[in-house]
Amino acid sequence: MLHQKKSTQGLRVRPLVCFALALGAVSAWAESVDSASNTLNFSRTYESRPTHTLLAAAGEAKPGSRDALFGDDDDDALLKAGAASAEKKAPASGSGIKGFLQYEMARAYDSPVHWSKMLTRADVSAQGNLGDGIKWKLGARMDYDAVFSATDFYPSAVAKDQRFNLNLRENYLDVGAGDWDFRLGKQHVVWGEMVGLFFADVVSARDMHEFILPEFDVLRIPQWAARAEYFKDDFHAELLWIPVATYNEIGKPGAEFYPFNPSAMPGISTQFRDEVRPSRTLANTNYGLRLSTLKNGWDVSGFAYSSMDIEPTFYREVVAVPQPTAFYEARHDRINQFGGTLAKDFGSVVLKSEGVYTRGRKFYVSTPDDADGVVPQNTIDWALGLDFSLPAETRLNMQVFQRAFFNHDPNLLSDKQENGYSLLVNHKLNDKLEAQLMWIASFNRTDWLLRPRVTWNFERNWRLAVGADVFNGPPLGLFGQYAGKDRVYSEVRYSF
Protein backbone atom coordinates (compact mmCIF):
# COMPACT_ATOMS: atom_id res chain seq x y z
CA MET A 1 0.00 0.00 0.00
CA LEU A 2 0.96 3.65 -0.24
CA HIS A 3 1.90 4.38 3.31
CA GLN A 4 4.42 7.11 3.93
CA LYS A 5 4.41 10.59 5.47
CA LYS A 6 2.90 13.59 3.68
CA SER A 7 5.13 15.90 1.70
CA THR A 8 4.74 19.15 -0.16
CA GLN A 9 7.19 17.99 -2.80
CA GLY A 10 5.77 18.77 -6.23
CA LEU A 11 5.87 16.87 -9.45
CA ARG A 12 9.26 16.60 -11.06
CA VAL A 13 9.58 16.78 -14.83
CA ARG A 14 11.20 13.62 -16.20
CA PRO A 15 13.21 13.36 -19.42
CA LEU A 16 11.06 10.70 -21.08
CA VAL A 17 12.76 11.51 -24.33
CA CYS A 18 15.24 8.84 -23.17
CA PHE A 19 12.44 6.34 -23.52
CA ALA A 20 11.77 7.35 -27.13
CA LEU A 21 15.47 7.16 -28.01
CA ALA A 22 15.73 3.73 -26.42
CA LEU A 23 12.71 2.53 -28.40
CA GLY A 24 14.26 3.59 -31.69
CA ALA A 25 17.68 2.16 -30.90
CA VAL A 26 16.45 -1.18 -29.66
CA SER A 27 13.95 -1.55 -32.52
CA ALA A 28 16.75 -1.02 -35.05
CA TRP A 29 18.90 -3.59 -33.32
CA ALA A 30 16.05 -6.11 -33.19
CA GLU A 31 15.79 -6.24 -36.98
CA SER A 32 19.06 -8.14 -37.05
CA VAL A 33 17.86 -10.88 -34.71
CA ASP A 34 17.43 -14.26 -36.43
CA SER A 35 14.43 -16.00 -34.88
CA ALA A 36 11.35 -18.14 -34.89
CA SER A 37 8.22 -17.99 -32.62
CA ASN A 38 6.50 -15.69 -30.12
CA THR A 39 4.20 -16.24 -27.20
CA LEU A 40 3.05 -13.11 -25.42
CA ASN A 41 3.11 -14.13 -21.76
CA PHE A 42 3.64 -11.29 -19.36
CA SER A 43 1.53 -10.37 -16.42
CA ARG A 44 0.71 -6.74 -17.03
CA THR A 45 -0.32 -6.95 -20.69
CA TYR A 46 -3.82 -7.99 -21.59
CA GLU A 47 -4.43 -10.94 -23.83
CA SER A 48 -6.80 -10.29 -26.71
CA ARG A 49 -9.02 -13.27 -25.93
CA PRO A 50 -12.62 -12.63 -24.81
CA THR A 51 -13.81 -12.56 -21.21
CA HIS A 52 -13.66 -15.99 -19.59
CA THR A 53 -16.52 -17.91 -18.06
CA LEU A 54 -16.26 -18.41 -14.30
CA LEU A 55 -14.91 -21.81 -13.32
CA ALA A 56 -14.63 -22.80 -16.97
CA ALA A 57 -13.19 -26.03 -18.31
CA ALA A 58 -9.73 -27.17 -17.22
CA GLY A 59 -7.02 -24.73 -18.14
CA GLU A 60 -9.26 -21.63 -18.14
CA ALA A 61 -8.87 -18.90 -15.54
CA LYS A 62 -11.45 -16.93 -13.60
CA PRO A 63 -12.49 -13.60 -15.12
CA GLY A 64 -10.98 -10.73 -13.22
CA SER A 65 -8.03 -12.83 -12.11
CA ARG A 66 -4.50 -12.06 -13.27
CA ASP A 67 -4.50 -15.33 -15.19
CA ALA A 68 -7.60 -14.42 -17.19
CA LEU A 69 -6.56 -10.85 -17.91
CA PHE A 70 -2.79 -10.90 -17.97
CA GLY A 71 -1.75 -14.44 -18.89
CA ASP A 72 0.32 -15.26 -15.80
CA ASP A 73 2.25 -18.50 -15.95
CA ASP A 74 0.32 -20.44 -13.34
CA ASP A 75 -1.06 -23.96 -13.62
CA ASP A 76 -3.55 -23.91 -10.75
CA ALA A 77 -6.48 -23.73 -13.16
CA LEU A 78 -5.51 -27.07 -14.69
CA LEU A 79 -7.10 -28.88 -11.76
CA LYS A 80 -10.38 -26.99 -11.76
CA ALA A 81 -13.71 -28.76 -11.65
CA GLY A 82 -13.75 -29.44 -15.37
CA ALA A 83 -10.81 -31.88 -15.25
CA ALA A 84 -12.25 -35.14 -16.57
CA SER A 85 -11.68 -38.46 -14.83
CA ALA A 86 -10.70 -40.00 -18.18
CA GLU A 87 -7.78 -37.59 -18.35
CA LYS A 88 -6.66 -38.66 -14.87
CA LYS A 89 -6.55 -42.26 -16.06
CA ALA A 90 -4.53 -41.45 -19.16
CA PRO A 91 -1.32 -43.41 -19.71
CA ALA A 92 1.99 -41.99 -18.56
CA SER A 93 3.21 -39.19 -20.77
CA GLY A 94 5.28 -36.01 -20.82
CA SER A 95 4.60 -32.68 -22.42
CA GLY A 96 8.19 -31.89 -23.33
CA ILE A 97 10.28 -28.97 -22.17
CA LYS A 98 8.99 -25.42 -22.29
CA GLY A 99 10.11 -22.07 -20.97
CA PHE A 100 11.88 -18.95 -22.15
CA LEU A 101 15.23 -17.26 -22.59
CA GLN A 102 15.30 -13.55 -21.87
CA TYR A 103 17.85 -10.76 -21.90
CA GLU A 104 17.15 -7.49 -20.08
CA MET A 105 19.06 -4.21 -19.93
CA ALA A 106 18.22 -1.15 -17.82
CA ARG A 107 19.87 2.25 -17.61
CA ALA A 108 19.21 4.57 -14.65
CA TYR A 109 19.21 8.09 -16.07
CA ASP A 110 19.15 10.17 -12.88
CA SER A 111 22.50 11.31 -11.49
CA PRO A 112 24.62 9.31 -11.13
CA VAL A 113 23.75 7.77 -14.50
CA HIS A 114 24.59 4.06 -14.48
CA TRP A 115 23.68 0.66 -15.84
CA SER A 116 21.35 -1.04 -13.36
CA LYS A 117 20.75 -4.35 -15.16
CA MET A 118 22.34 -6.60 -17.79
CA LEU A 119 20.39 -9.73 -16.97
CA THR A 120 20.27 -13.05 -18.79
CA ARG A 121 17.47 -15.32 -17.59
CA ALA A 122 16.66 -18.93 -18.52
CA ASP A 123 13.43 -20.49 -17.25
CA VAL A 124 12.81 -24.15 -18.04
CA SER A 125 10.02 -26.50 -17.01
CA ALA A 126 8.50 -29.82 -17.96
CA GLN A 127 5.28 -31.54 -16.96
CA GLY A 128 3.61 -34.83 -17.64
CA ASN A 129 1.06 -37.46 -16.72
CA LEU A 130 2.01 -40.69 -14.92
CA GLY A 131 -1.48 -42.12 -15.23
CA ASP A 132 -3.92 -43.12 -12.49
CA GLY A 133 -4.60 -39.50 -11.69
CA ILE A 134 -0.96 -38.57 -11.03
CA LYS A 135 0.69 -35.60 -12.75
CA TRP A 136 4.04 -33.94 -12.27
CA LYS A 137 5.90 -30.73 -12.97
CA LEU A 138 9.57 -29.79 -12.70
CA GLY A 139 11.03 -26.34 -13.19
CA ALA A 140 14.15 -24.25 -12.59
CA ARG A 141 15.41 -20.76 -13.35
CA MET A 142 18.90 -19.38 -13.83
CA ASP A 143 19.74 -15.67 -13.64
CA TYR A 144 23.06 -14.02 -14.43
CA ASP A 145 23.37 -10.24 -14.19
CA ALA A 146 26.53 -9.05 -15.91
CA VAL A 147 26.13 -5.52 -14.52
CA PHE A 148 27.88 -6.76 -11.37
CA SER A 149 30.83 -8.01 -13.42
CA ALA A 150 31.05 -5.16 -15.92
CA THR A 151 30.72 -2.31 -13.38
CA ASP A 152 31.69 -1.61 -9.78
CA PHE A 153 28.76 0.71 -9.04
CA TYR A 154 27.24 -1.52 -6.34
CA PRO A 155 28.70 -2.77 -3.04
CA SER A 156 30.36 -6.19 -3.11
CA ALA A 157 27.63 -7.72 -0.92
CA VAL A 158 25.00 -6.66 -3.47
CA ALA A 159 27.06 -8.04 -6.35
CA LYS A 160 27.50 -11.37 -4.57
CA ASP A 161 23.77 -11.59 -3.84
CA GLN A 162 22.51 -10.69 -7.31
CA ARG A 163 25.19 -11.64 -9.85
CA PHE A 164 24.17 -15.30 -10.23
CA ASN A 165 21.19 -17.25 -8.92
CA LEU A 166 19.88 -20.73 -9.66
CA ASN A 167 16.43 -21.41 -8.23
CA LEU A 168 13.89 -24.19 -8.26
CA ARG A 169 10.54 -23.06 -9.56
CA GLU A 170 7.41 -25.22 -9.40
CA ASN A 171 8.30 -28.84 -8.63
CA TYR A 172 5.33 -30.92 -7.54
CA LEU A 173 3.15 -34.00 -7.86
CA ASP A 174 -0.60 -33.79 -8.46
CA VAL A 175 -2.80 -36.66 -7.33
CA GLY A 176 -6.50 -36.82 -8.20
CA ALA A 177 -9.00 -38.85 -6.17
CA GLY A 178 -12.64 -38.31 -7.06
CA ASP A 179 -13.69 -34.83 -6.00
CA TRP A 180 -10.31 -34.24 -4.37
CA ASP A 181 -7.03 -33.06 -5.85
CA PHE A 182 -3.76 -33.04 -3.93
CA ARG A 183 -0.64 -31.10 -4.84
CA LEU A 184 2.62 -31.83 -3.00
CA GLY A 185 5.81 -29.88 -3.56
CA LYS A 186 7.03 -26.41 -4.50
CA GLN A 187 4.07 -24.53 -5.99
CA HIS A 188 2.42 -21.17 -6.60
CA VAL A 189 -0.68 -20.44 -4.52
CA VAL A 190 -2.46 -17.44 -6.03
CA TRP A 191 -5.39 -16.11 -4.01
CA GLY A 192 -5.50 -12.50 -5.21
CA GLU A 193 -7.55 -10.92 -7.99
CA MET A 194 -6.14 -7.41 -8.44
CA VAL A 195 -3.75 -5.82 -10.95
CA GLY A 196 -0.25 -4.49 -10.32
CA LEU A 197 -0.30 -4.69 -6.49
CA PHE A 198 -0.78 -7.44 -3.91
CA PHE A 199 -3.70 -7.52 -1.49
CA ALA A 200 -5.34 -10.95 -0.98
CA ASP A 201 -2.43 -12.65 -2.75
CA VAL A 202 -0.85 -13.40 0.63
CA VAL A 203 0.71 -16.85 0.22
CA SER A 204 3.42 -16.79 -2.45
CA ALA A 205 6.64 -15.01 -1.56
CA ARG A 206 8.11 -12.46 -4.00
CA ASP A 207 11.46 -11.61 -5.48
CA MET A 208 11.75 -7.93 -4.51
CA HIS A 209 15.19 -7.25 -5.98
CA GLU A 210 13.38 -5.00 -8.48
CA PHE A 211 10.53 -3.85 -6.25
CA ILE A 212 7.16 -4.69 -7.91
CA LEU A 213 8.43 -3.97 -11.43
CA PRO A 214 8.94 -7.49 -12.90
CA GLU A 215 6.18 -9.55 -14.45
CA PHE A 216 4.20 -11.52 -11.92
CA ASP A 217 5.41 -14.90 -13.21
CA VAL A 218 8.94 -13.67 -12.41
CA LEU A 219 8.04 -11.89 -9.20
CA ARG A 220 6.36 -14.80 -7.44
CA ILE A 221 8.43 -17.38 -5.52
CA PRO A 222 6.75 -20.78 -5.05
CA GLN A 223 6.21 -22.26 -1.59
CA TRP A 224 6.99 -25.81 -0.43
CA ALA A 225 3.43 -26.82 0.38
CA ALA A 226 0.89 -29.59 0.70
CA ARG A 227 -2.45 -28.52 -0.77
CA ALA A 228 -5.76 -30.38 -0.84
CA GLU A 229 -8.60 -29.09 -3.02
CA TYR A 230 -12.21 -30.27 -3.02
CA PHE A 231 -14.53 -29.55 -5.95
CA LYS A 232 -18.28 -30.10 -5.87
CA ASP A 233 -20.57 -28.40 -8.37
CA ASP A 234 -19.91 -24.66 -7.89
CA PHE A 235 -18.17 -25.08 -4.53
CA HIS A 236 -14.40 -25.21 -4.02
CA ALA A 237 -12.51 -25.78 -0.74
CA GLU A 238 -8.75 -25.50 -0.36
CA LEU A 239 -6.62 -26.67 2.59
CA LEU A 240 -3.01 -25.50 2.67
CA TRP A 241 0.00 -26.40 4.83
CA ILE A 242 3.49 -24.97 4.29
CA PRO A 243 5.99 -26.87 6.47
CA VAL A 244 9.05 -24.95 5.26
CA ALA A 245 8.18 -21.38 4.33
CA THR A 246 9.80 -19.23 1.66
CA TYR A 247 10.14 -15.48 2.27
CA ASN A 248 10.51 -12.37 0.14
CA GLU A 249 13.95 -11.90 -1.38
CA ILE A 250 14.83 -8.31 -0.49
CA GLY A 251 18.50 -8.15 -1.47
CA LYS A 252 21.27 -6.39 0.42
CA PRO A 253 21.67 -2.78 1.64
CA GLY A 254 22.96 -0.64 -1.20
CA ALA A 255 20.96 -2.49 -3.86
CA GLU A 256 18.95 -0.46 -6.37
CA PHE A 257 15.59 -1.29 -4.78
CA TYR A 258 16.42 -2.24 -1.20
CA PRO A 259 13.03 -1.93 0.53
CA PHE A 260 13.99 -0.06 3.70
CA ASN A 261 15.52 3.41 3.99
CA PRO A 262 15.22 4.58 7.61
CA SER A 263 15.10 8.20 8.66
CA ALA A 264 18.48 9.59 9.67
CA MET A 265 18.87 10.38 13.37
CA PRO A 266 21.24 13.27 14.23
CA GLY A 267 24.58 12.10 15.55
CA ILE A 268 23.73 8.41 15.04
CA SER A 269 25.13 6.31 12.21
CA THR A 270 23.15 3.51 10.54
CA GLN A 271 24.13 -0.12 9.99
CA PHE A 272 22.22 -3.23 8.89
CA ARG A 273 22.53 -6.67 10.41
CA ASP A 274 21.85 -9.86 8.49
CA GLU A 275 18.21 -10.81 8.02
CA VAL A 276 16.87 -13.27 10.61
CA ARG A 277 14.58 -15.91 9.16
CA PRO A 278 12.41 -18.16 11.33
CA SER A 279 13.79 -21.55 12.32
CA ARG A 280 12.32 -24.60 10.61
CA THR A 281 10.09 -25.79 13.42
CA LEU A 282 6.49 -26.93 13.56
CA ALA A 283 5.55 -23.70 15.36
CA ASN A 284 6.79 -21.68 12.38
CA THR A 285 4.81 -23.48 9.69
CA ASN A 286 2.08 -21.72 7.69
CA TYR A 287 -1.46 -23.02 7.23
CA GLY A 288 -4.75 -21.82 5.86
CA LEU A 289 -8.22 -22.54 4.52
CA ARG A 290 -9.92 -20.97 1.51
CA LEU A 291 -13.54 -21.49 0.40
CA SER A 292 -15.09 -20.22 -2.81
CA THR A 293 -18.35 -20.55 -4.66
CA LEU A 294 -20.16 -19.35 -7.78
CA LYS A 295 -23.67 -18.03 -7.27
CA ASN A 296 -25.67 -16.21 -9.94
CA GLY A 297 -22.50 -15.24 -11.73
CA TRP A 298 -20.77 -13.95 -8.57
CA ASP A 299 -17.46 -15.64 -7.83
CA VAL A 300 -16.92 -15.21 -4.07
CA SER A 301 -14.15 -16.54 -1.84
CA GLY A 302 -13.07 -16.24 1.78
CA PHE A 303 -9.91 -17.38 3.55
CA ALA A 304 -8.12 -17.61 6.87
CA TYR A 305 -4.33 -17.83 6.87
CA SER A 306 -1.77 -18.01 9.69
CA SER A 307 1.86 -17.55 8.70
CA MET A 308 5.29 -16.24 9.43
CA ASP A 309 5.10 -12.97 7.52
CA ILE A 310 6.69 -13.17 4.05
CA GLU A 311 7.47 -9.45 4.42
CA PRO A 312 10.23 -8.50 6.86
CA THR A 313 9.88 -6.01 9.68
CA PHE A 314 13.00 -3.95 10.40
CA TYR A 315 13.70 -3.83 14.14
CA ARG A 316 16.05 -1.19 15.49
CA GLU A 317 18.62 -1.29 18.29
CA VAL A 318 20.58 1.85 19.22
CA VAL A 319 24.04 1.19 20.67
CA ALA A 320 25.92 4.05 22.35
CA VAL A 321 29.48 2.67 22.31
CA PRO A 322 32.01 2.78 20.79
CA GLN A 323 29.97 5.35 18.85
CA PRO A 324 26.22 5.94 18.63
CA THR A 325 24.87 3.53 16.01
CA ALA A 326 21.40 2.40 15.01
CA PHE A 327 21.43 -1.26 13.97
CA TYR A 328 18.50 -2.47 11.84
CA GLU A 329 17.60 -6.14 11.60
CA ALA A 330 14.96 -7.66 9.32
CA ARG A 331 12.79 -10.24 11.11
CA HIS A 332 9.61 -12.15 10.31
CA ASP A 333 6.75 -12.21 12.83
CA ARG A 334 3.74 -14.48 12.94
CA ILE A 335 0.62 -12.83 11.55
CA ASN A 336 -2.97 -13.94 11.06
CA GLN A 337 -4.96 -12.85 8.03
CA PHE A 338 -8.65 -13.10 7.15
CA GLY A 339 -9.96 -11.98 3.81
CA GLY A 340 -11.81 -12.67 0.62
CA THR A 341 -12.26 -11.86 -3.04
CA LEU A 342 -15.19 -11.14 -5.30
CA ALA A 343 -15.52 -11.10 -9.09
CA LYS A 344 -18.46 -10.61 -11.45
CA ASP A 345 -18.60 -10.54 -15.24
CA PHE A 346 -20.96 -7.90 -16.68
CA GLY A 347 -20.37 -8.59 -20.34
CA SER A 348 -17.45 -6.44 -21.44
CA VAL A 349 -16.87 -5.19 -17.87
CA VAL A 350 -15.42 -7.23 -15.01
CA LEU A 351 -15.82 -6.14 -11.40
CA LYS A 352 -13.16 -7.25 -8.94
CA SER A 353 -12.76 -6.63 -5.24
CA GLU A 354 -10.83 -8.02 -2.31
CA GLY A 355 -10.05 -7.25 1.31
CA VAL A 356 -7.68 -8.57 3.96
CA TYR A 357 -7.59 -8.01 7.72
CA THR A 358 -4.09 -8.54 9.12
CA ARG A 359 -3.36 -9.02 12.82
CA GLY A 360 0.12 -9.15 14.38
CA ARG A 361 2.21 -7.19 11.86
CA LYS A 362 4.52 -4.45 13.16
CA PHE A 363 5.42 -1.16 11.49
CA TYR A 364 8.42 1.15 11.63
CA VAL A 365 8.38 4.39 13.63
CA SER A 366 11.14 6.96 13.33
CA THR A 367 11.02 8.29 16.89
CA PRO A 368 14.44 7.63 18.51
CA ASP A 369 12.99 7.00 21.98
CA ASP A 370 11.12 3.88 20.84
CA ALA A 371 13.05 0.85 22.12
CA ASP A 372 12.92 -1.34 19.01
CA GLY A 373 11.66 1.14 16.39
CA VAL A 374 8.42 -0.77 15.63
CA VAL A 375 4.85 -0.80 16.89
CA PRO A 376 2.15 -3.48 16.43
CA GLN A 377 -0.73 -2.38 14.22
CA ASN A 378 -3.73 -4.30 12.95
CA THR A 379 -4.77 -3.26 9.45
CA ILE A 380 -7.38 -3.83 6.80
CA ASP A 381 -6.46 -3.57 3.13
CA TRP A 382 -9.13 -3.47 0.46
CA ALA A 383 -9.28 -2.81 -3.26
CA LEU A 384 -12.02 -2.36 -5.85
CA GLY A 385 -11.40 -2.58 -9.58
CA LEU A 386 -13.19 -2.43 -12.92
CA ASP A 387 -11.83 -3.92 -16.11
CA PHE A 388 -13.23 -2.71 -19.44
CA SER A 389 -12.93 -4.33 -22.85
CA LEU A 390 -13.10 -1.33 -25.21
CA PRO A 391 -13.31 -1.01 -28.99
CA ALA A 392 -10.20 -0.93 -31.18
CA GLU A 393 -8.38 -3.70 -29.26
CA THR A 394 -8.15 -1.59 -26.11
CA ARG A 395 -8.39 -2.61 -22.45
CA LEU A 396 -8.76 -0.33 -19.44
CA ASN A 397 -8.32 -1.27 -15.80
CA MET A 398 -9.12 1.11 -12.93
CA GLN A 399 -8.62 0.41 -9.24
CA VAL A 400 -8.98 2.22 -5.92
CA PHE A 401 -7.48 0.82 -2.72
CA GLN A 402 -6.96 1.65 0.92
CA ARG A 403 -5.05 0.56 4.01
CA ALA A 404 -6.72 1.49 7.31
CA PHE A 405 -4.92 1.24 10.65
CA PHE A 406 -6.75 0.26 13.84
CA ASN A 407 -5.59 2.17 16.96
CA HIS A 408 -3.32 4.24 14.72
CA ASP A 409 -0.03 5.15 16.39
CA PRO A 410 0.70 8.86 15.80
CA ASN A 411 4.41 8.11 15.28
CA LEU A 412 3.78 5.96 12.21
CA LEU A 413 4.97 7.25 8.86
CA SER A 414 1.51 6.43 7.51
CA ASP A 415 -1.78 8.25 7.91
CA LYS A 416 -4.62 6.44 9.66
CA GLN A 417 -6.09 5.78 6.23
CA GLU A 418 -3.80 5.45 3.24
CA ASN A 419 -5.66 5.76 -0.07
CA GLY A 420 -4.51 5.16 -3.61
CA TYR A 421 -5.56 4.37 -7.16
CA SER A 422 -4.19 2.81 -10.33
CA LEU A 423 -4.90 3.01 -14.05
CA LEU A 424 -3.75 0.63 -16.76
CA VAL A 425 -4.41 1.12 -20.48
CA ASN A 426 -3.37 -1.42 -23.09
CA HIS A 427 -3.89 -0.89 -26.82
CA LYS A 428 -3.05 -3.28 -29.63
CA LEU A 429 -1.66 -1.15 -32.46
CA ASN A 430 -1.54 -4.04 -34.95
CA ASP A 431 -1.01 -7.79 -34.98
CA LYS A 432 2.55 -7.46 -33.71
CA LEU A 433 2.73 -4.19 -31.80
CA GLU A 434 1.00 -3.04 -28.63
CA ALA A 435 1.44 -0.18 -26.18
CA GLN A 436 0.69 -0.01 -22.49
CA LEU A 437 0.70 2.60 -19.75
CA MET A 438 0.40 1.92 -16.02
CA TRP A 439 0.02 4.57 -13.32
CA ILE A 440 -0.15 3.91 -9.55
CA ALA A 441 -0.49 6.84 -7.14
CA SER A 442 -1.44 7.93 -3.64
CA PHE A 443 -4.42 10.14 -2.82
CA ASN A 444 -2.73 11.22 0.42
CA ARG A 445 0.34 12.83 -1.12
CA THR A 446 2.36 13.27 -4.29
CA ASP A 447 3.73 9.73 -4.54
CA TRP A 448 3.45 7.86 -7.84
CA LEU A 449 4.85 5.34 -10.30
CA LEU A 450 4.52 5.70 -14.10
CA ARG A 451 5.28 2.77 -16.43
CA PRO A 452 5.02 3.22 -20.24
CA ARG A 453 5.84 0.13 -22.29
CA VAL A 454 5.79 -0.95 -25.94
CA THR A 455 5.91 -4.61 -26.97
CA TRP A 456 6.75 -5.89 -30.44
CA ASN A 457 6.08 -9.54 -31.33
CA PHE A 458 8.45 -9.37 -34.27
CA GLU A 459 8.63 -13.09 -35.04
CA ARG A 460 6.94 -16.25 -33.91
CA ASN A 461 8.01 -17.00 -30.31
CA TRP A 462 10.02 -13.78 -30.11
CA ARG A 463 9.08 -10.60 -28.32
CA LEU A 464 10.87 -7.31 -27.78
CA ALA A 465 9.79 -4.77 -25.19
CA VAL A 466 11.06 -1.32 -24.28
CA GLY A 467 9.81 0.85 -21.46
CA ALA A 468 10.51 3.16 -18.58
CA ASP A 469 9.95 3.14 -14.82
CA VAL A 470 9.49 6.64 -13.40
CA PHE A 471 9.16 7.31 -9.65
CA ASN A 472 8.14 10.46 -7.81
CA GLY A 473 7.40 11.36 -4.21
CA PRO A 474 8.82 12.15 -0.78
CA PRO A 475 11.99 10.32 0.34
CA LEU A 476 10.03 7.97 2.61
CA GLY A 477 7.17 7.40 0.15
CA LEU A 478 6.47 3.97 -1.25
CA PHE A 479 7.51 5.21 -4.70
CA GLY A 480 9.35 8.38 -3.71
CA GLN A 481 12.07 6.39 -1.95
CA TYR A 482 13.17 5.33 -5.45
CA ALA A 483 12.86 8.79 -7.03
CA GLY A 484 16.54 8.70 -8.00
CA LYS A 485 16.20 5.26 -9.62
CA ASP A 486 14.25 6.19 -12.76
CA ARG A 487 15.29 4.01 -15.67
CA VAL A 488 14.69 3.02 -19.27
CA TYR A 489 14.90 -0.63 -20.18
CA SER A 490 14.67 -3.17 -22.97
CA GLU A 491 13.81 -6.88 -22.94
CA VAL A 492 14.01 -9.54 -25.60
CA ARG A 493 12.42 -12.94 -24.96
CA TYR A 494 12.38 -16.20 -26.85
CA SER A 495 9.67 -18.60 -25.68
CA PHE A 496 9.73 -22.33 -26.42
Q: With helices defined by DSSP (H or I, 4 residues minimum), what is the helix count?
A: 6
Helical/strand content category: mainly beta
Helix content: under 10%
Number of domains: 1
Number of strands: 26
Describe the fold and architecture.
It is globular and about 65 Å long. The longest helix has 14 residues, at 17-30. It has one domain (17-495): Porin. The chain contains six helices and 26 strands. The chain has an 18-stranded antiparallel β-barrel. It has a three-stranded mixed sheet with strand order 11-15-14, with no helix packed on it. By secondary structure, the protein is mainly β.
Put the structure in a nutshell:
With about 500 residues, the protein is mainly beta.
List the helices and strands and how they pair.
Elements: H1 17-30, H2 66-70, H3 85-88, E1 93-108, E2 114-131, E3 134-145, H4 147-150, H5 156-162, E4 164-168, E5 171-177, E6 180-187, E7 205-206, H6 216-219, E8 220-221, E9 223-232, E10 235-244, E11 269-272, E12 286-295, E13 298-308, E14 313-319, E15 325-331, E16 334-346, E17 349-359, E18 362-364, E19 374-376, E20 379-390, E21 394-405, E22 417-428, E23 433-442, E24 448-459, E25 462-472, E26 487-495
Parallel strand pairs: 11-15
Antiparallel strand pairs: 1-2, 1-26, 2-3, 3-4, 3-5, 5-6, 6-9, 7-8, 9-10, 10-12, 12-13, 13-16, 14-15, 16-17, 17-20, 18-19, 20-21, 21-22, 22-23, 23-24, 24-25, 25-26
